[in-house]
Specification:
The structure holds two protein chains of two kinds. By secondary structure, chain A is mainly alpha-helical. In chain A, 63% of the residues lie in helices and 1% in strands. Chain A has a two-stranded antiparallel sheet with strand order 1-2. Chain A is elongated, with a radius of gyration of 29 Å. By secondary structure, chain B is mostly beta strands. Chain B is 4% helix and 41% strand. Chain B has two helices and 30 strands. Chain B has a four-stranded antiparallel β-sheet with strand order 1-2-3-4, with no helix packed on it. In chain B, strands 5-6-7-8 form a four-stranded antiparallel β-sheet, with no helix packed on it. In chain B, strands 9-10-11-12 form a four-stranded antiparallel β-sheet, with no helix packed on it. The chains are: A mainly alpha, B mainly beta.
Chain lengths: 660, 375
Amino acid sequence: GAWAAAGPLRGHWAGGSRSPHAVSPQVLGWRVAAAITWSVLLLPICTAAFIILSGLDPFHPVRWISNSFNDLYTSYVIFCIFLMSMVIIIISIFNIEFYAVVPSIPCSRLALIGKIIHPQQVIHSFVHAIMGMLVTWCATVMTKGRFQFLAVSCTPSEGLEDAVPQMCLNEYHLFFLLSGAFLGYSYSLFYLINNMNYLPFPIIQQYKYLRFRRSLPLLIKHSCVESLHFVRNFCVTYYFFGYIPKVWICTTMDLHTDGKLHPLDTLSGLLDLSLFYHTWLSGVFLLMTWYIAWLLFKIYATESHHFPIQPTFAQETDQCLPKILNSNPPLLIKFLALQDLMLLSQYSPVRRQEVFSLSQPGGHPHNWTAISRECLSLLSDLTQRLIAQQEAAAAANGRAKPPVGELKVPPQTPGIASMSPLVKPSLMPVKTSPGSDVGSPFSSPALNYKMGVVDIKSPWHGPVQSPHVMRRGPKLWTSVSDQQMNGSHHESFPVLSAARTGTEAVQPRFIYTWLQNKQEQCTQNILVSSQHPEASIQAVFSDAQMHIWALEGLSHLVAASFTEDQFGVVQTTLPAILNTLLTLQEVVDRHFKLPHVSSKPPRISGSLVDTSYKTLRFALRASLKTALYRITTVFGEHLNAVQVSTEHKKRLQQFLEYKE
Amino acid sequence: QLSVLLSLQLTSEDMIAAFSQAVDWAGCTVRAFAWHPHTNKFAVALLDDSIRVYNSNSATVPSLKHRLQRNVAAMAWKPLCASILAVACQSCVLVWHLDPTSLSTRPSSGCAQVLSCPGHSPVTSLAWAPSGERLLSASPVDTAMLVWDVSTETCVQLQWFGGGGVTYLAWSPDGSKVLAATPSAVFRVWEAQMWTCERWPTIRGRCQTGCWSPDGSRLLFTVLGESVIYSLSFSEYRGEMQGQVGGSKTASIVADLSETTFETLYGEERIGGEVHSMVWDPTGERLAVIIRGEACPLFPPHSGFVRGERGARPQLISFHPCFPQGALLTVCWSSGKISHIPFFFVGALEPHASPRRSPVPVLGSVREQPLFSEL
């Protein structure tokens, strides 16, 4: 009911007056605003649940409930809600700044470490730690009791009758604050490791409310379990290092330690069930509010958007689907446009008619030409990329064969250049990963859009977005590998560690080099084996969602054209479409025959964290085949009249006989 | 709600037997049957949990066996695909990837994908989207039906509370709607774009079976305990309906199958009763039903009967999805035989009309002289 209120809100940007090139800020702006509004509106509910649960008193249920409800209206709770709304807004801003429709997949553990120490991630972690501390501070204030203040008056000892009551450190409060910081940091770390900035598009369309409701049980479960893990880890950390902040706080704020109370960095201190419960509960509260903000942003951002095919007014040309597909909008907008293309081709005869229509003066099929051109260029891009990867794989296989003696081979082909020092042929002949340059240090994020598409502005972790990126990488690399070949890691070592302390943000590349040298020296086994071919294959297909939609949209349109295309506009491009699809089919087939490519998708557990990018290549393979069958089934024998090469004709015949 | 509780107490085998489209699922040799949507190929699930795939162009009959392939309740071939077969088993859905050119008679169990979800067993019904992209699976004990992306093995749960699980699924041939029957006296029709649903309570019992007209505008269904066929019409599908199922308010009775005396070649016979399963041919001009406890399917509008061999009862019926000269009905008999019965006719509009455009026959018309075919 109330949820639907967001609908009319969106209506604004669909119908209001627009300036040219304004489609993306408008689409995204409203989505972001709605997502933030809802996450802030849901905060009081979470807070109420937290207050009720934190006052848990199973022996006096009536008093417990009435006390909790009385607490809800107190001024400090309202202040806390206000403060936490600010936190939610900041967290949402980070979600927006960091989101990506194409995930960046680290191809090795080393690359992951590189990501973690990247300045942008450091800022992310730092801010999240602070935010975590703020939230737990609010939690302590709302819990009241012994956790509320940092400084309390010491328990008066019997012997000394001091006139001046001394202020003592409330270690529980400190414990809480630190746990908040720890949770915030852990959240940020897991956000990075699990690629939670990735926006997966759902496999079926559903209303936002239903999607939210479907994910809510998972979200609660995930928060509870994760909070348990984080709190456990925090307890261990506090046991070992807890004295450092304690001493520091005591000295800076001139507080005393209360000798009467158990110190918490001991086993007996930590075995306090109530403390554990409250820490866990505030952890659940923190994670839930943050995950809700994250989930809502995901749901809003991936909701389908209706792009017009033909402009009603001249100034609206920029918002039209063909125009958007052919321009270079933020990737998210491009994704939404392709998704819309898939939907209209499948469900909307009226809009399909617009696609097949001719322009009014002139009689050119501009819409169809623009749409099919873009889809075909996307698909042939993918074909090129896969061919390059396969060539690299072939080269790598050839290279892997030489015997043990030959350790460091200079990069021969661009494709395998960047990771080659990591992979010693003697150690892992098969695992030499052909596409690993993709997520490698020097494939620069060529398409770094303002709205945050994989906006990790490092030179090292851009996902592959075009073949150009792959080609650019090795140039940078060669210098490094040369250096290694000259045996100069020992020389570079001190310089680099100095650089690390000084200008970490400015020269990340050196640290990376240093890390690699380090790896060369000591941890070959662990790290090299972690350099995973699976990850590099995932990286090649990381934006395959676009290609899947292009395939679906194109094939549905072509199939529909059999009965709906009055002017025969599709016929002219049919040979090109079949050519592109069949070539891609060959290349994809060949890809799945590569030695280390698994033919079955890995199991995905139904968890909150979406890892669908790991299986995109399987979806691509399936929809490619379905797309070809969709065309051949509808056109049948008529396809024999289409001009394609003999080889493709053979393949088409196979499809016509259902033998592929 | 009693039936819901009852269904939870049944063992899963009893449950499959109760909800299966096969008349005598527990005892008959043939448990499930599926025509390939584009070619002359069909799969038969047998009592010993193996599946045979027969192909008119090939003498090899692959036999599919898998550790998890137990108590097969339903099968479905993936549309727009050469050879992918989904099998509803006791504990999971198996998706077999068969090589259409292979001559092997025992495909390895490595060819099968296992789709399982906790709490979603036994699976009693499957339905592929006609566009071949998604698979639906349903279990009588799971209140959610699952939409699978088979290639990535991910699923989305479509939860709707009330009415227990889902016993039977039927996707309309135009892909716009899905019928989902429940163990209680209510069934739902989902709209397959935004996945919202409308629910229809039935008066007497649960919805036993249902089938769609080729253009997806009309649903025929039967209810346990009543010997009539209901029809429910839907507003014409215009695409991008944004969550409107668009069903009419009430269902109308289009055929009364209660017991009547017929003159047959063998004298007078009393035929009629509850409908157990029902199929509509792809041109929309023939409807076949199995009447519970009777030996004969029946075909309105030109009603006729098919009599099997002495003592044989029909178990399963299915129409060939692309028989060019009319319609081809396949009947699996309790004796274990499978017979194909062709119907040669010229469609009402044009013989080779696009299947989506075929007309809806006027049901419940005046009974003409009963046709009678004997095997």
